[in-house]
Every structure is written in structure tokens, then in C-alpha cells.
Amino acid sequence: MYASGGTFSVELKAVSDMGCADSLVKTVTVYNNPTANFTADSVCIGNPTTLTGTSNLNGVPPLFYSWDWNSDGVADATNNSPSAQNTFTTYGNIPVTYTVITSPNGGLLNCVNSITKNVWVHPGPSASITYTNQCVDAQPLPMSGITTTIPVGSITNYAWSYGNGNYSPTNPGAATSHSYSSAGIYVVTLTVTSNNGCESVTTNSVQVYDRPYGNFSYSKTCFNKTTTLTAIPSASGAPVVNFNWDFNNSPTTVEASGVQVSTTFSAAGQQTLNLLLTTAFGCKNTIPGNVYINYNPKANFYAPKRSGCTDLCINILDSSSVLTGPAKNVSWEWDFGNGQLLNSASNGANKQCYSNSSHYNVKKYSVSLIVRSDSGCVDSVSKKGYVTVYPKPRADFNWIGEEGDVLTPVISFTNTSEGHSNFQWYFNDALNALDSTHNNPKHYFTTDDPKTVNVYLAIRNSYGCKDTIMRPIDIGPNFTFYIPNCFTPNDDGINDTFTGKGIGIKDYKMWIFDRWGEMLYYTNDIFKGWDGSVKGHEVDGKTDVYQWKVIVTDLTNKAHYYVGHVTQLK
User: Fold this and answer.
1) Does residue 143 form part of some domain?
2) How many domains does the chain have?
3) CA geometry: angle 75, 77, 83, nearest 5 deg
4) Number of neighbours of residue 81 by Cβ within 10 angstroms
5) How far apart are CA 414 and CA 402, in angstroms?
6) Separation CA 149–CA 153 (nearest Å)
7) pTM as predicted
8) Beta bridge partners of 523
9) What is the pLDDT of residues 454-504, one digit of tens each?
């Protein structure tokens, strides 16, 4: 074995067992092995490491180089370059074996040398992001790299990229925060650097929750009535899970919860409220708004006159209050209590008549009014016994017996009226024509001629209601006839002629006959009697008896027949 390379003469002597000897001398060339060596970067795990060969080939041409990255006896890389790169996957002192092979004769003879050296690979940090998602109105959003780890060494910088174009390149502390202008999902990048310059990069998605949006609708409502409110979440916002309502304009208090709620506001007109929306992530939004509570009509009416005698006709007028705008009264529904109903679109005067068929009892009528506005609000008023109708007395009378006649012109009257307290008779003739003293009077009619007299009876009750009746009383003709049975035609002015007398005579005929039946005299004028002469000649004046015949027609055209005897005296 040669300690170093060079050219050497080598002699070989050979001696047989018989003592014979021979020798041979040749020149031997001994080549030096290479001296393997290398240098390496101080690198971070996971980063390419450059290993630079610094071997001495000792004058022999190189053949190839071999690297065993973990010195396990298995070559991991063979190449013709003395240097190489490797990315180590573990950190610490990593044994690397470097083998250099030379060949003085193009590969027929190989000279080999290896060296094993430790390469220091710095450990890299393991970046990690912790965060808390926030609502857009509850920022900044906190983030931290506090959970980042490194086996050996320390973290010297936390560089943040917030995913919206904003950066924080230098940040020695692990904690940071950032405010986003709008809701969304943002990819945050954290780059941590160790004291040896090793880096670790990680990303994570943080979310900024959107606020909820919405509106509400409400039912058209009248004062003192229940208003129904319905929340209408907007599709553009985050899903809403809680709907709270503030009715007293103090969002710190909640008066109702739910998508649809009902309430009764304490006043009419415009009312303010707040709809408080909350998402599943706890994001909140307050939706202010107004509702208009319509004023109710105030129904009322009056009648300038509402009591009187039947038939009572009066005007009933609407006196409902003017409705606070913008609503207005549009409908008036009347029940006048007398069977008359009216649904009107105007509030004009209404003329109504009320009757009372009783002659004694007061009758009252109730009147009701319902007023509606164009908002559907309603008010009503009912006034019981509002209209009073006094009873009207009934005037009537009769009289006793037959109708009066000129012979008996005294009539007895009976007052048969009902419901009266005062009366007044009017007999319509000149004598004692008025009588308010005698309820059932007798009256003498001063007339000699038949006629019809209109008798009036006027009555009045305690309410001042009156009635009058008129009945025609016939003072009719009566028929009487009288004729004497003797006469004395002596021109003394007493009983000088013979004729009849009577009342109620319309037509008169008289015949005079002697005892033998010969007609001596005829007249059709009751006022021209027989003077006792016969055919224009005076008789001898002796006493004698004659027959007579009379036909009298009364005023009713009834004929009355009479016959008899008359004695002519001296």
C-alpha cells in the first residue's frame, strides 16, 4: 500500500522449490484518491439548500459525484456537477454523505472518497390564524397568529394581508384587527418570520356578517282598534331570525315579537315605531317607520224641534264633528225610529214625520246615526226617546133622538170625544152660539125655517194638541095640517073664509061640495079660502053643512088626503 500516489518500480522475484530463481522489474503508477469535501447553506426547512463541493481531486480527473441526503447508504443524487441542491423536509443537524469518484483512465479505474457532514436545517414556523367573525356594524374584526408555533427559535414578525387590498407588513405582535367596509368573505393571509428568517404562510377565510334589512306593512286602522303589523325582510340582507317591535320610540325596550304582531296605539294620527331585526349571527338593524292611525268620526245629530202633536214633521240635522284629515266622513246611516232608514252619502237635513195614534198616551221615538269615514272608521250615536209625539184628542159628539125640526128645535148633545181636557161648542147660530161650560149641552136653535146647521166641537188636551169635528144638524121640515069644521062668512073679519092651515106644505088643493055632491068651490091656494058663495053668488046665509076634500103635498113631495064637513053659520 502506497501512502501517496506516484510512479514506483516493482520487482518480482520468483524462486522454485528446487532453488531456481528469476526476477522481473516493472514500473507501477499509483494514483491519489480525491479528498471529498463540501459546504452547505444554513437554510430553513422546506427551502432549497445549495451544497457546494470543495473536494480536492488530487490531480485525477473527476468521474461523477454522489449525494446521500440522510446518510442511509443509498445515493439520493448522482451527477457530474460537484454541487447540488436539496430541500430538506426535517429540521436539525442532518448527516449528508458526499462521495467523489475520479478516474485516471476514463472509467477503467475509479478512485473514490466520501465525507459525511451535518447540515443544519433551521425549523420553520407553523403559521396559524385565529379570528372571530363579526357583524359589519360590530367591527373591527379581531385576528391573531398567537397559535403559530416553531420548534426552535422565535417568531419575529407577523405580516398580514386582509384580503381587501389592505396590508400590514410589519407587526411584531401576534394580534391584529381590521375593519371592513362591507359584509362578505375575505381571504386573510398571515406570513410569519422566525429569528432565522424562516417563513410560514397560511390563509383563512374570515366573514363579515351583513346586517339585516327589511320593512313592514300595517293594516289600515282606526283609533282604539287593533293594528296588525307585518315585517317584510329584504332578500338583500342576511336572513332574519328575530323580529322585535318597539312601539314607544325607545329601541331599548321591546313591546312585541314576531313576524306579525298586533297592538292598539294610544292615540290617533301619525305614530312612530321601530322594527328591530336580528340575524342568526346576532347582527342587528333598526328599521324606523311610521304608521297612521285614522281618527274615528264623532257621530251626533240634533233637531231644532223634537216634540209636538201628531203628525209631527221635523228636520233632523247631522252635527257630527269634522273629522281630522286626511280622512273624511263619507257615509251617514240613519234609523229615524219611525220605520224610515236612510243610507246617505251626504249630511244634509232630513225631514221626518212622526205620528201617534193614541188619544191619551205620549209616544217617543229613538233616533240612531252611524257615521263612516273613507278610512272605514265608524262611530254611532243613539238617542233613546229623542222625539216626543203628544197624543191627539179625538173630537166627536152625538145628539139624542131624531134630528131636530122647526117644531122642536132643542137638541141635546153628548160630547163623546177622547183624550181632551178642554172643549168648545160652536152651534153656528146667533143665540148662545158658544159653550165651553157644558160638556153635554142642550141648545135651542132659533129658526122657523128648515135648514142645516153645521155644529162644531173643538177640543184640546193638556199638551195643547187640538181636534175639531163638524157635524151638520138638520133642522128639518115638519108637516102639520089643520082645517076648521065651521066658519061665519059675515064680513066681521073673523072666520070669514074656510081653508086649512099647516107647516111644511108645498102644494094645496081644496074642493067644496054640497050635500048632493055638486062641486061648489075649488082653490089651489091655501091662502084663498071659501067665502061661502056658490059660483060667485052669495048664499042666503042660512046655516048649512057642506063637504070638502083637500090634497096637501108636503115638502118631501108626499101627498096627504083629507075629507070632511064644514058648517056654515050665520
Assistant:
1) yes
2) 5
3) 125
4) 10
5) 14
6) 10
7) 0.57
8) 510
9) 999 999 999 999 999 999 887 766 678 899 999 998 888 888 899 999 887
